[in-house]
Amino acid sequence: MAFWRKKNKKEKDPPEEAPQSVEAQEEAAPEGEGGETEPAPEPEAQATVLEEARPEPEPSAEPEPLPEPEPAPEPEPETEPEPLSGDEQEPRQGLWGRLGARLKKTRDKIGGSIDRITLGKKIDDDLLDELEEVLVTADLGVQTSLKLIEQLRGQVARKELKDAEALKKALASGIAEVLSEVAEAPSRDNAPHVIMVVGVNGVGKTTTIGKLAHRFKGEGRSVLLGAGDTFRAAASEQLTLWAQKAGCDVVGGQEGADPSAVAFDAVEAALNRGRDLVIVDTAGRLHTKVNLMEELKKIHRVLGKKLEGAPHEVLLVLDATTGQNALQQAKLFNQAVPLTGLVLTKLDGTAKGGVVVAIAGELGLPICFAGLGEGMEDLKPFDPAEFAEAIF
């Protein structure tokens, strides 16, 4: 060991190596003859000897290849795929084919009940009494239900209805007839054509106006919107956003302004700018509030003074999920301002779609448009025959 200390002093401050244990030195130094230990080599040589003395690591075996993942099983086709919204679904399935899927709750209420009461029974007067109850509870209304049942009784007497399928077809035909026996909606061939939109709070009135504007723009018409809902907070801003989406003008007033003045200004702007169609929004109001209904009458009068014959249409927006309450709204609004047609929203999410038939049967008002979703394209012209077929 003294040899190594002297040797290290002569070196130029080599880095100190970690001290090795006695066992490690004995393993590193080979034994000479007579059992004497040979002096350890110089540091460079020692490193070489130590490297040779260490057992070489065994070559690691090549990693076994991972098994290939099994292909995922193909998904089974769905029997009833969920309908897509807007433009994706329309080209493939069509509006009322999509409505058949969207009207599942109403279809189950009417068509499913007919299947239940006709199971194992013949079509007779007793069964028709049960069917009458089904129609009333499905919000078709008492008067309309009685009319439909009387038609079916005549067909039963003539032995034209032999099974449940024949009964369904006859009922669908009767419903389509009720929906068709209404006044015709006004044509929109004049310019500017003025549409006044009314309804209670929360039915989707402003949204409906935006969708109508989008639809009419797609038909090549130039549209202007009048923001006559001057009482609800941010109503004008909401309508402005819809106008931007539809690409049309909007005329509004300050919050709390006279809505009649806004309606007047909207028609005047349409005349000056050469617009084809004006849609005037009005504040949502309870149909039982007399003072608010009087305000609607005033707007109606002001529009007529500014442009002869205006408003050419008065559309009432109804929430189909409210059932018979929607019928009462239609009656009272029709007393305040002469309605020319109805727009039904949320028709795809209700079991009370029968109210469509009740309103048409009792008021003789046409259903002009039906809302089937939230997209811009989800407001479509109403077709009585295809609607009647869809609910069965």
Please provide a written account of the structure.
α5 packs parallel to α16, α9 (164-180) packs antiparallel against α16 and α14 runs parallel beside α15 (355-363). The protein is built from 16 helices and 8 strands. β7 (367-371) and β8 (379-381) form a beta hairpin. It has helices spanning 2-10, 22-28, 43-53, 90-93, 95-102, 104-118, 125-137, 142-157, 164-180, 205-218, 235-246, 259-273, 290-306, 324-336, 355-363, 384-390, and strands spanning 193-198, 223-228, 249-251, 277-282, 313-319, 341-345, 367-371, 379-381. The protein has an 8-stranded mixed sheet, with helices on both faces. It is elongated, with a radius of gyration of 41 Å. Helices cover 48% and strands 10% of the residues. It has 392 residues and is α/β, with parallel strands linked by helices.
Report the helical percentage.
40-55%
Shape: elongated
How are helices and strands ordered from N to C? HHHHHHHHHEHEHEHEHEHEHEEH
Determine the N-to-C terminus distance. 106 Å
What is the residue-mean pLDDT, rounded to a whole number? 78
Strand order of the largest sheet: 3-2-4-1-5-6-7-8
How many strands, which pairing sense, and closed or not: the largest β-sheet? Answer: 8 strands, mixed
Strand content: 5-15%
Low-confidence stretches: 1-67, 71-93
Structural class: alpha/beta
- Alpha plus pi helix count: 16
- Total beta strands: 8
Radius of gyration: 41 Å
Instruction: Tell me the quaternary state.
Output: single chain
